[in-house]
Design a protein that fits this description.
33% helix; 15 strands; five-stranded antiparallel sheet; five-stranded parallel sheet; alpha/beta
Length: 236
């Protein structure tokens, strides 16, 4: 897969270094380099980029402010000399956060994270169109509609799939494989042992997801993704 990317940085030396890094990374294709977010805004409307290497401290419009108005499908890797913006970068779902001066080793690690995200997302979109999957259980392949899933529980080498009709399906499978298969953010990992169909959640109680009499825990490792999902979908 090739990712179309753009660089937005008001420092010519920093932008030049990033250009050289993009040029020697086989899966990246540079479609533009811009000295400000305002300049990029005009060009990216006509020639969208999948991935932006985006500086934060820039005149007129900061990288954080620009990120908030970008389409959700445009992914961001922040490039900055200031560590204090890391939390804000996470809030706008940046794939990574690179501190200047940026080494090629750090750059390519971040670029590979983006490649992984696009590859998984591409698979998820294809699977989401089908809206079903087959799972092995008791030597049979069982058809499971995604819309029927409430949540999934990991049990060592097995998973238990809980369906809306009360049915439970056991299958020899790991949670990571399911997490990569199911479309995000409709399905989110909330705990090392749970994946939840977020559109089916009935309520939140003490930061646990409620399904009837069942309470699904939300661990510290996943709480930011879950909180972001609820923030987006909560009217206040």
């Amino acid at each position: 897969m090739t990712i179309n990317c753009a660089i937005i940085d008001d420092e010519p030396l920093a932008a030049g270094l990033l250009k050289s890094y993009v040029e020697k990374t086989p899966f990246l294709q540079l479609i533009g380099a811009y000295g400000s977010a305002l300049e990029a805004m005009k060009e990216l409307r006509e020639h969208p980029a999948q991935l932006l290497f985006l500086d934060i401290q820039m005149p007129e419009l900061s990288g954080i402010e620009f990120a908030k108005i970008l389409p959700s499908e445009t992914k961001i890797i922040f490039t900055t000399a200031f560590q204090q913006y890391a939390i804000e970068g996470y809030k706008v779902s940046a794939i990574d956060y690179l501190l200047k001066p940026i080494s090629y080793n750090d750059f390519v690690k971040a670029a590979n994270k983006a490649l992984d995200w696009f590859n998984i997302n591409q698979k998820q979109q294809a699977y989401a169109k089908d809206r079903f999957m087959f799972v092995k259980s008791d030597y049979k392949l069982i058809h499971v509609a995604l819309d029927d899933i409430l949540y999934i529980e990991g049990l060592k080498d097995y998973v238990r799939i809980y369906l809306a009709d009360g049915q439970k399906i056991m299958s020899l499978m790991n949670m990571k494989k399911l997490e990569d298969y199911l479309p995000r953010p409709e399905f989110l990992r909330t705990h090392r042992s749970y994946i939840v169909h977020m559109t089916k959640a009935q309520s939140i109680d003490r930061f646990r997801i409620v399904f009837g009499q069942e309470y699904i825990p939300i661990s510290d490792s996943y709480k930011d993704d879950v909180q972001q999902y609820f923030d987006i979908h909560t009217l206040t």
